[in-house]
Amino acid sequence: MNRPSHLATTAALLALSVVSGCGSTRFVVVQNQPAGAPGASAPATTTVPTGPSSAEDVAAVTKLVGDALSTDPDVSFADRLPFLDDAEDLKATADAVQELVSTIEVDVSVDDVVVSGDDATATVSVTSGGEPFASGIPVAVKRISGEWKITRDGACAVLSLGSPCPER
Asked: Would the pTM of this model clear 0.70, i.e. be above it?
């Protein structure tokens, strides 16, 4: 079995799967370099909010990231869409990521959630075979009409590791 090398020319691509309720998720490795890898292009900039985070908001955002980006094959993109803001055009990306999930699994965990008012950032890390693969992946989240939703850019920060997001 060929294993991805750590050379800049060898890439790995991720797709997200959730381990329900524990703030962890599972990813699939395929063929693009993750954010932070040597030679990888810089991810979209996400401003990390500052200020106090309530335990309730942190728990809600942590759960949201898992629910919205789950690759559970029994959950359709239409079922995920209510967790996402302005992401209707991501169906093909999410479907491609969904297809990859059954290949090579790696672990993803939410390292931190910072909430400031109606904005939040969940920071996730990915390990593959127990080794660090990517870290510091920002997932932007905002509260809209009282409900937390992952922004399109936040969803793409993770989904684009498995399949490119369409340009706007």
From this structure: no
Classify the C-alpha dihedral 69-54-109-20 as positive or negative. negative
N-terminal to C-terminal alpha carbon distance within the chain: 38
Beta bridge partners of 147: 144
Sheet with 119-128, edge to edge strand ranges: 14-19, 24-29, 104-116, 119-128, 131-144, 147-150
Model confidence over 80-118: pLDDT tens digits?
Answer: 999 999 999 999 998 987 787 667 775 667 888 999 999
Alpha-carbon gap, residue 21 to 124, rounded angstroms: 15
Amino acid at 53: S
Closest CA to 6 of 28, 34, 25, 42: 34
Could you tell me the domains of the chain? 14-159 (3.10.450)
C-alpha dihedral, 106 to 114 to 72 to 164, nearest 10°: -70
User: Which of 27, 9, 74, 48 is closest to 140 using CA atoms?
Assistant: 48
Going along the chain, which residue ranges are E strands? 14-19, 24-29, 104-116, 119-128, 131-144, 147-150
